[in-house]
Structure formats: C-alpha cells, structure tokens
Amino acid sequence: MTTIPTIVVQLVHIDGPLKGEIQEFLDQEISMGRLPACQVQFPKNFTMISRNHARIMREGNRFKLVDQSANGTFVNGKRVTEAYLKSGDVLILAEGGPKVSFLTRVEEGRPQPQAVTPSPSGGPAEPRIAPTPQPPAQQIQPAPEVPLQVPIQKVQAPLIVQYGPTLRSFKELPVTIGKSPGCDLSIEHPRILDKHAQFFFDQGQYWVKDLTGQNLILIDGQPINLQGLLNPNSTLALTSQGPTFRFLGGGRLAEFEEPETQEPEGEEL
Question: What is the pTM (predicted TM-score) of this model?
Fold first, then answer.
C-alpha cells in the first residue's frame, strides 16, 4: 500500500502584530494580507500590509512566494517578486514590517484507498472494503529508563533557533547557548548565565544539557536532571523566568510567550 508524503508549512511570527504565533498549514496556497479571507490575516489598520499582500503556492514539493503588494516582500533581506522558498528562510512583509520564519516538515500521509471492484451483478461498482485488522493483545511493558547521562558527540544535525528578531541556523551539534561571546549562540537576558545550555543529538533525538549546575532549565514546567529529552511541541524554559521556547521537532526552536493569566477582580466594597 503506497503512502502520500504530506508537507506541513510552519510560519513562525518573529516580529509584528502576530509575534509569537506559530501557524501550520497543509493548504496548496497560503494567502497573507489584511483581508478576512487571508489565512494569515493582519489587523485592518496595519496599512503597511496590503489587503492581498503575498501568496505562498505549492508546486510539487516546492513552495513559491508571489508578491502582490505595494510595499514589497523580502526573502532573507532581498526584495522579490517571485521566489522559491526553502525551510529556514525569513520573510519580511513590507520594509520594516512583520518578520516571519518559513519552515517545512515532511510527514507520512494516509494510505491510498483500495481500487474499486465491479459488482458481480453488473450493477454499480462497489468499493472493496478491507477487513478491519484486530490489534494484537497489548502487553504492558515497563517504561524504558532514561540513562543518567547520554554521551555527547559531534554529529551532522540541523538546529534552527528563533529568538526575538534573530534566526540562527546550525548544521552541526552540539551547540552551546549562554551570555558569553564564546558560546555558539549568545543570548542577552538577565537570567542567562555565561554558559547556560547545550543542545545535542543522539540516536535520532534532540537533547538539552543544563550547564548551570543549578537545575535552572525546565521542560514542560519540570526541571531537568542534568539532561532532558526534547519531544515535539515541548516547551523549554531556560529559567523559570524565561526565555522560553517551543520545540517544533526537526531541530527547530521558536521563542514562545506564555499567555498572561488574568487574576479575578475582587468585589467592590
């Protein structure tokens, strides 16, 4: 049974009115602008963006950006009319306007339907329905223990980190993050130490190591014990007071802002 690959487009809003949002699309065409019909809709009063500003169209396994605006669309800082995009490209809608990271990932699609079998009576054809497979009896297996320390080795694996208006891409891991200029990625944040965290890759999975010695790094709200496994859609907080990222899978980290919770108003006396 053959399968159809599915390409998911992720648009990570780095700057602008939608900053912090991560949108996913399976559409053949993605429209961006101020019109309500656009999949990526900007506020009506944000007039530097045209009503129909740009489109991203799928052509086979490639994606083409088509500019339709008055103020222009830029790919990696260069103004374009049309351009084929690659994962990791940064789009700017109008000069000085919203900045969006374009990312893609490939997922296996559903099996194709069975061929139609003609009816023996000569009537309308009926679809051949495969019998529903019965799942084997499940056996409860103990959860595998995570080793206390996963070995860290240099490997060729991608890592893309979006923090504020910057987007950094690495092709080799491990990658060290901290405040020190000697780190692979230097982050200016009051809570970040000189050498704060290290990202590495082992056995097909991404890991983070806490270099602070203070158990400051949290995954999904829980502090890690020296090392932690990053699963798709996990939230990674470098400290309890940020900065915080969402791991999108495939070595992609995007800055993530927790929604503010409103405290209930007290009754007036």
Answer: 0.54
pLDDT means per 10 residues, the chain with 269 residues, are 72 89 90 94 94 94 94 94 92 93 75 46 52 52 52 90 86 94 91 94 92 92 91 92 90 78 50
Three-state SS across the chain?
Answer: CCEEEEEEEEEEEEECCCCCCEEEECCCEEEEECCCCCCEECCCCCCCCCCCCEEEEEECCEEEEEECCCCCEEECCEEECEEEECCCEEEEECCCCCEEEEEEEEEEEEECCCCEECCCCCCCCEECCCCCCCCCCCCCCCCCCCCCCCCCCCEEEEEEEEECCEEEEEEEECEEEECCCCCCEECCCCCCCCCCEEEEEECCEEEEEECCCCCCCEECCEECECEEEECCCCEEECCCCCCEEEECCCCEEEECCCCCCCCCCCCCC
